[in-house]
Amino acid sequence: MNPARFAATHALAQNALSDRQQAILRLRADGLSGPQIANRLHIAVSTVDYHERAICHTLRAVNISNAIHLAWQNGLLRKERHGDHAGFAAHIRRGETPCDLCKAGESTYRRAQRRQRKNAA
Fold first, then answer.
1. How far is CA 59 from each of CA 7, 45, 106, 118, rounded to the nearest angstrom?
2. Over residues 85-102, mean pLDDT
3. Residue 65's CB: how many other CB atoms inside 10 A?
4. Are 34 and 44 in contact (CB under 8 A)?
5. For the chain, does the N or the C end have fewer beta carbons within 10 angstroms?
6. Exposed (0-12), middle (13-18) or buried (19+): which is 29, by Cβ within 10 Å?
7. How far apart are CA 101 and CA 9, in angstroms?
């Protein structure tokens, strides 16, 4: 895919999907069923179905499986790392406030680095 087209498609889809739709897409990509997603988000199964249809329309997908594939392909879904230095750095790169788990992982990483420098000296 052309890099400019990829960037435009990613930006369009990222802005076009609501937070709820992004959450449903992530949970579906994690393998949860419609009823499981509804239970997790405290919404009706019909609401999950509605959002999935909207996701498919926005991403021009034929079904939710195709939407998940397109989302991975366009960078809308990404494997999250948490609880270590890389997860902390990923939060910073995305302009987010790091989660507590990543802050703790970063703290552990920095202590190990200080210990290593101290032992090397």
1. 14, 21, 36, 52
2. 85
3. 12
4. no
5. C
6. middle
7. 32
Contacts of residue 96, defined as CB under 8 A and 6 or more positions apart, other chains included, come to none
Number of other CB atoms surrounding residue 71 within 10 Å:
24
Give me the residue label for tokens 């419609």: 34
pLDDT digits over 6-56, tens only?
Answer: 544 554 555 688 989 999 998 999 899 999 999 999 999 999 999 999 999
Classify burial at 119, counting beta carbons within 10 Å of its beta carbon; exposed 0-12, middle 13-18, buried 19 or more.
Answer: exposed
By residue count, the chain amounts to 121
Is the pTM higher than 0.85? The answer reads no
